[in-house]
Input
Amino acid sequence: MTAPETITLALWATNLGKPLNGIDGWIARIDAKMAEAKAAGADLLLMPEYACEQWLSFKPNGLAETQEIAWMAEQAVDAIEHLKPLAETHDLALLAGTVAWKDETVTIGPPYRNRAFLFLPDGRVVHQDKLALTPHEQDPDSWDLKPGEDIRIVEWKGMKVAPLVCLDVEMPALAVKLAPHEIDLLLVPSMTSMLSGYARVFGCAKARAIELMTSIAVCGVIGSAPGSTQNPTNVSGCAVYTPCEAELGFTGIHAELPAVGTDDGDGPFLIARDVPIGAIRKLRSGAAEVWPGAWPGDHVTVSQAG
Output
């Protein structure tokens, strides 16, 4: 299949502060937001990292911090089953943020992953585990998770698409591994408690768009989930970045909504129209101003001068 010249993306910086009465309420919110995205002409809806923390608004009384990941992982099994048909129903791809997930293949250490699920209208479901965990995600006294080991690239609509979860996009080493694969779209669900974290993730996402000569969509949660013990604040926004090329408008910013910490509604919702997939492919094939291609730097050494 030939990749489209452009694609329209919907990004939802989900407001965790709105309480839920159960998983059904969470699914209903996503269903409604997918309908809104589809009506606006979107091909894909991106949700943030740990959108599942909103579930803590209906957690059992007395649930300890060390039990939250296991409890959310139990809810995730049902949640994922309910999400599966929505992509086909709306004819809209969905990256439903990340959820806590129990990985039955893990035999050593904590069995839980921070896992993103990408649902495609043709029925495929692709998952991506967070590779670079924060200290908070490796704390035996609270949320103790296991990092992933691979990056999963999926072919969709003739494009190569890959998710990277939050801190992963800050790792240049991952960009070096991805560069030879000529990715068309990177999807970055994020959670950042302060403006500094937002600046790191979004700044690095823009850098990766330049390094990889690709488009990157990134959004994070805002607010704080009722019942949260870990994240009293969340600050984020939505953005789609492209390479900084004259043909693409010079700045590398295709569309964005600024960072906020609170919202009276469901959270900021961005429709990024006509992301120039085809034009970026042409630039990547040799038409860029100065881009040297996938550049591993194998010939470079580091030495002490003087």
